[in-house]
Structure formats: structure tokens, C-alpha cells
Amino acid sequence: MAEIAWREALNQALAEEMERDANVFLMGEEVARYDGAYKVSQGLLAKFGSARVVDTPISELGFAGLGVGAALVGLRPVIEMMTWNFAVLAMDQIVHNAAKVRQMSGGQLRCPIVFRGPNGAGGRLAAQHSQSLEANYAHFPGLKVVAPSTPADAKGLLKASIRDDNPIVFLEAELLYGVKGEVPPGELLLPLGQASLKREGSDCTLITWSRMYYHAEEAARQLEAEGIHVDLLDLRTLKPLDEAAILTSVRKTNRAVIVEEGWSFCGVGAQLVDLIQSQAFDDLDAPVQRVTGLDVNRSYAAVLEHAAEVNPARIVAAVKQVLYREEG
Amino acid sequence: MATEIQLPALSPTMKEGKLLKWLKKEGDAVSSGDAIAEVETDKSNLEVEAYDDGVLLKILVPEGEVAQVGAPIAYLGQKGEKVDLAAAAPKQAAAPTPLPVAKPTAPVAPAPAPRAAPAAPPSAVRSAAAAQVVQLHREGAAPAGGRLRASPLAKRMAQQAGVDLGAVQGSGPQGRIVKRDVQAAMSEPSPARRSSPAVRAEPEVLALSSMRKVIAQRMAEVKPGVPHFYLSVDVDMEAVLALREEAKAAEVKVSVNDFIVKAAAVALHKVPKVNVSLQGDRVLQFHTADVGIAVAIEDGLITPVIRDADFKSLGAIGAEARELAERARRKALKPEEYTGGSVTVSNLGMYGVDAFIAVINPPQASILAVGAVADRVVARDGHPVVRKTMTVTFSGDHRVVDGALGALYLQEVKALLEHPVRLLL
């Protein structure tokens, strides 16, 4: 099986869906002539032309609205945000129009649109460009939130997102674009709302998504060396949430640690804790632990940035804590 | 060795207490049960009793000071013994301490109960204030404050496996009992593994109905004290003996009496109105099935109680009964081990007694007098056959139990013993 990078997997997904459906088009800053700020759209302008690969001015609210309008009249726009930090400017279109129009029109209107781009820290991009914003979008009814970790998942879920009739917030990660992984050749469609059990073990359930999967995997490897085996559950989609996968695993292991790049307060992990405590209370042998970014704005200074972020050592410590093992 | 006297939780909500007055001085001899200090709690002023005999070696908390529940307040030991305070000091934060229980000063049971006790649990404390009924947990192992810390999973596992969490030492933070602790307890042989529900239901205090009051009054006029009535029944013991042989083959030690104790407990659930204790003008309705066993000792007898005997396996009851009887003979039983319950099994079968009637052990409401299992000729299908047969005689406190009710209970005991597979289910 071919090992390809994330950016290439996304590129394949876009190209395949644009070939499959003439209503699919890509729009955003630098997506066309520059081939994308992160080269996700490499070659798409040449292949599909400027009517379907559209450069926009630096105006997130404007082109997000353009995308919503296009979706309402039957197209399937993919709107690239250079980063999700910039999409804060487009929140009005995403949460007030895209998320609500189907319900407010009594089902008469549909908004099949994908907003996608990098989310989370990029490495010394400072406070305004290092945020993990999934909790914001997951909060709103009407939006689906997808946050995959591997190139194969990214490809399969982006294709499914483009075909979905609802507005999708598709979260990538700048630090993942170069990460390679095996992607099966041919058509790859993965259902939204299905978590992936990336590793099996009976001692603890590690729940994560997006880039944190790699930290969790590293922590799981270290724990394995100490004889601690975890279920590593990669949620892939945050909304709809695969509650059954979470509860099945927690009921097996009786413990859970949730790893989230973003901040703790009102984070997605807080929602997961709520699910676990309310549905699996009698199965818990320890309070659920969360490993999150520290509750401060990201520093530009590398040492401070590093101090505030999630790392495998913190995950290992949290797993040992729920297992009531002394930290050596 | 000097032992700590810890500040007991004198009410369910008590977190700390103010030492009002030391009733004993350093150097004073105290006996078990002596009031040693008066403590102001969130509810009232109560006395702290000594658990053991000895000399009050050292007072740690002076009068007027506040101590946390579970914190050591004094040391008890032998005369002349030195207390190593340095070693003791860091323990201040209070390890879980056996939960003592309060008993009201005014006796609630008017019955002539020589050694004691309203059915309320054993006492570490006497109320110095008004006679208020303080409902408290019994059983010894809950930590200070009465709250047992266990993970939800541990509680569920304990309940399913019949492990008494009160007897499990928690290894988690603040002594939280977690999965591995319950697993360890489950792998221990009995009696460490005591099958009983994780949480014991408290008895309910019910008012006597006016009819019941009149009956109680009339019965007491005719028969002062505890007005007894008696019911006897013959029980076919063939099935019990067969099962016992099978248990023996499987190397499980079970006596005939263990079957009777279990049957007495299970029957209490079937006929809950027998599972009561008269307390003055009120009735305690138990929701647990605790059965006393009469044990003859050197100069008398004592009735240790097997708690939750309905939940326990026959093997567990046997092990516990042997252990309790052995300590009873050594006079090493703790008061809480021979109080409570609503019924006692008194068995004189081993002395070849065929049938007898027993005196109720107040404030319990009934007693089963068990005779020997012997070959007797009985009629079966119109023919005389020889069957292993045993006579059981029920004595009931007529103030709270009537003949028909006692008959139902006895019928249930008989049915359980004649179909003992029901005791295994």
C-alpha cells in the first residue's frame, strides 16, 4: 500500500470528488494560482480551471458567505480557511447561516458545504495562530465537526464530508500535512460519526482525535513497555460523536484519559467526561482524567510554548494516575 | 501497647467536635464503656466512651479545643507505659477509624434486657443530652464520617460478588476502594470474603398501630416481660444431610446449623413482618437478615450475630460461625458482634435434645429452638417410613408477632430446609 502524506491524501480526495461531481468547487485564499498555502490544492487549478478552483481576497466572512450562498442554490463548495484562526472572522456565516438555514427553512433549504483548513498549533505561531477551535464549532447544533488523524482517515472523511448534505467543519492540522501514512488505493469513503480503535488493550481507554493521536500513540508505546495496555480510540468525528465506541471501551477498561490539544475549560473532553460519567458511572474505577493544553494563550517563545502543550509524558502520567500506579 | 483513642463520629454529619470536658484524668484507670470525655458536636453534647480497659496515658486535645473526627484525642494503655508522641503525631490526618455509634441515654426498650442494648448497634457513646434516637450506620469499617470511599465500579463488583466493602482496605487516594482491592478481597478465602451487600439497609422505625398497642399491653398483662408464644414443626432433614455430604465431598465444611441459620435468614425476607424488634412504643423493621447463634460458653451463653446471612453462602456462614464461636469461647467478641438482629438460632441437637423451647433474647422478637436430627418413624403415603427428622420450635414476642405470622415464618423455614437447593440460589 502506498504511503502518502496528509496533504496528498486531501488533494486526492478533492480531485476525486471534483471529478465525480461537477457541482464541487474549491474556494479560498491562495488555493488556485499559488496551489494552496499548504499545497493541499496542488495542481487542481490546472486540472479543473479557474471556475472551480477560486482564489479569494483576504475576506473570510465574504467568501464563507459566498460559499453558503452557492451551497443553498445547489453547488457543493469546499471553502478553505488558511487557518481556522482566520475563520473566527467567518463565524457569522458558519454558525448563523450554514448551521441554521436547514432548520430555519423547515427543511426547504440544504447547505452542503465543507469548511476546511488547519487547526491547532503550528509551532511558534504565537497566541493568535495556534488555537484549537473544535469546541467552538462542536457547540453549535447543525454543524458536523470532523478531525481525523491519519492520511487515510483524512481522505475517506473529506470525501464523505463533501458528499454530506450538511455543513461540515473539517479540521486539519498544520503539523500533520507532511505526515505520511498508508492510504488504500481506489475509492475510500469513511462514514462520519465513527471512531476508530487504533490500538487495543484492557487497562485504560485513551480517547483523542486529530494530531493528538500521535502523542497518544507514543504514550501507548511507552506504557506498553511497562506492561500497561490501552484502548486507543481515535474519534475522527467529534460531531456526531461515536458514543457507543467510547462507552464500549470504557466499560471494558473501567478507566479513561482524554487527550485534547485545546484548552481544558469547556473543551470537547469536558463533553466526553459528561458522557462517560452519566452513561458509564458504575463502570468507572477512577475519575476520568483529561490531558489538555494549559489554560494560557500560546507563547511565541519556544520554551513557553512547549511547556503549555500536551506531550506523551503527560499522557503516560495521566494513565498511571487512573490506574492508581505511583509515578516513579 | 498504647492505643489511640480517636474522636468518633457521634452523628452522621459530624466532621469535628469540641472537647468540652475530660471526665478522666491522665493516669486514671478506665474500663471499656466508661465515659471519658464530653464532646460538643453539631447536634448535641455527647460522651465518648473507652473501647478498652486500661489507663488513660495521655490527653492530646485539651478542653475547649476542636478535633477532627478520626483524629487521636488520647492514648490508652497499661499503667506506667510511655507514649511515643513523635511517632504518633504525623498520623493526625486520620486514617479511617471504625465508626462508632451513638446510643441514646434513655433506654428505648422497656424490656428487661440484661446486657443491653436497644437493637441499635453497639455503643461507643452515650448521649449526654436529650434522649434522641440517632440513626447511625453499623458495621465497623466505614471511615471517619461514615462515608465509605469506593469507586462506582468497585461498589458494583462488591455487590455482585457479595464482598463486604466495609471489610476491604482501599488502596486508592484517601483510602478509596478500587477494582484491584475488590479483586483481592474476592480472591481471599472466607471468612475474609464476607458475602454481604455493599450497603446495608438501615432499619425503619415504625409506630405501633393502636391495635398492636392494645395487643402488646394485654399480652404483657398476662405474661409480663416478653410475652412468649410457641410453635413447633417437624422438618424432614434428608435433603439437607444429602447436600451436606456433597459439600463434604467438595471439601466445604458446612454444618446442619449453618443450613438452619441460612434458612432462618432467607425466611425473614419471605416473612418480613417477623424481622422486627420492639423498641418502646415503636417497632424497628429491619431490612437486613441478621441471625444470632447461641453459643454455650464456660459460665453462660452468648449470641454472636451473623450479619446478612441471607446473602452469604453456606460455606461463608459456616466459616464465620466457627470463627465467632471460637472467639466467643475466648470471650473475645466485640459488643457489635453480639448485638442486633431479630432472631436467634439455639441448637441443642448435639446434646441429643429432641425438642425444647427457648427464651427470646430481647430486643429480638423471636428465637428458633432446634433439636437433634434423628431417625424417626413418620407416615409417608400411608406407610411408616424412617426419616431423618428434626423438631424446630419457634418462640415469638407476642407484642409484635402473632401466631399466624410466626406459623408462616416457621413454614418457610421448614420449606427451605426440606428443599435446601433454594438456599443455594
What are its keywords?
heterodimer; A: alpha/beta; 7-stranded mixed β-sheet; 5-stranded mixed β-sheet; about 35% helix; B: about 425 residues; Dihydrolipoamide Transferase; 3 domains; 8 helices; about 25% strand; globular
What does this structure look like?
- The complex is a heterodimer of chains A (328) and B (425).
- With 328 residues, chain A is an alpha/beta fold.
- Chain A contains 12 helices and 14 strands.
- Chain A folds into 2 domains: 3-182, Rossmann fold, CATH 3.40.50.970; 196-322, Rossmann fold (3-Layer(aba) Sandwich).
- In chain A, helix 10 (268-279) links the parallel strand 13 (256-263) and strand 14.
- Chain B is of the alpha+beta class.
- Chain B folds into 3 domains: 3-127, OB fold (Dihydrolipoamide Acetyltransferase, E2P) (Beta Barrel), CATH 2.40.50; 144-187, Dihydrolipoamide Transferase (Irregular), CATH 4.10.320.10; 204-423, Chloramphenicol Acetyltransferase (2-Layer Sandwich).
- Chain B is built from 8 helices and 22 strands.
- In chain B, strand 21 and strand 22 form a beta hairpin.
- In chain B, helix 2 packs parallel to helix 3 (179-187), helix 6 (256-270) packs across helix 7 (314-329) and helix 6 (256-270) crosses helix 8.
- Chain B starts with a strand and ends in a 7-residue tail after the last helix.
- The chains are: A alpha/beta (328), B alpha+beta (425).
- Chains A and B meet through loops of A and helix 2 of B.
